[in-house]
Design goal:
Layout: H1 33-48, E1 55-62, E2 71-78, E3 85-89, H2 98-109
Antiparallel strand pairs: 1-2, 2-3
Helix pairs in contact: 1-2
Amino acid sequence: MLSKPTARTIYPDARSMPKIALPMGRRAQKSGYPQAVQELKQQTRRLLDLPDDVTVSISELTCRDPGCPDVETVVAVLREGQKPAIARIHKSILEVRLDELKAALNRSLSSHDLVFRPRTGDPDVDQ
């Protein structure tokens, strides 16, 4: 008869460990999510007039801690040899509007020598 595992149970190899499901892992992707990520990347590139060698990363994070927003979109601008510039928007990727992206970039990225350099006549930036 097997004994019930405790917090101090040591398993000599992985085959003897009990199998449990962890609440981690990929969530089901929402409809339109990949397109929204690409759109936010393109808007960020246009707003900051970023060259092709600069990476823009868009992530959606969830938080269960008290006082923390349930979900936030994180926009990271990664330039070689420099500290990442991070902007946070307390909404899901699918809910972020252009004016909210502009405001978050303006608040967070000015300390990283990134400024708005919108291309004139760009309908996505002139909104």
